Amino acid sequence: MIRLVSxxxxxxxxxxFQQLHYFVAVAETxxxxxxxELVHVAQPSLSQQxxxxxxxxxxxLFLRARGNITLTDAGEALLPLARRILADADTARxxxxxxxxxxxxxxxxxxxxxxxxxxxxxxxxxxxxRYPGIRLLIEEGGSHDLVRELARGALDLALIVLPLPPASxxxxxxxxxxxDLVVVSSTEAPAPGCRDGLVMRVADLEGExxxxxxxxxxxxxxxxxxxxxxxxxxxxxxxxGEMDAVLGFVRAGLGVAVVPRMVATRAGxxxxxxxxxxxxLHRTIALAHRSDVAPPRxxxxxxxxxxxx
Length: 309
Hints:
The protein is α/β, with parallel strands linked by helices.
């Protein structure tokens, strides 16, 4: 059932799309039999529906004079409204079909900059190749920021670092990967101090100048906590950057940084990568969404591809 409202006029709620469809067909053909053929219905059925519509509205829509069909004033008033409603319904039907069949729509994905650099490019390329009509909206940020964006409904999915921040909203999380962290330094600078030149311990970072991420960045918190557990306070040469800036400062020889192995592998020339001795440092990446709202279908498909990568 629909309700039509025009200036100064209100139509009964029992009006049906089928009746409007028949009305428009008659109005355009000015002939009941041809209109019935156009909409693939028996002519008596079409006539009955038009009469029912006229009863609903309390006004005749057509003047019927020996086969000469013309619109009444009420019919003229209804015609543009009916066409618009039918057009809007057709547009809605097509848009829903596009979404259901993943030919259109969007996915709003949040990820830390390190994951945007390391994990996402290959997965997003595969997703785009399969569903070229889906728009991918990517938001970079630290895990704390992404959790807030999920909570306010600005993201469908987010790749975050576990554990969740204290007092986090209700999120559903699925562990995606456990990622090793490594130490990167400039190839133009002396190698950072370590026992055998092949691996470093966290304790070997004491006395090293660290290039450090901004506050709220999970890698900053993890590195500082590891240094304190090893019994020393880290020394920052530069602090406050995002991933690209940190790697650039390291290449310039300003200090060393602790970064995910996946990022270091893709970082290109100018960087020396030194693993951390066991047990080393790790972080757990999870895929998260709000527990009270199911992600849209396109987001669920991207979620499946991330989990199966």
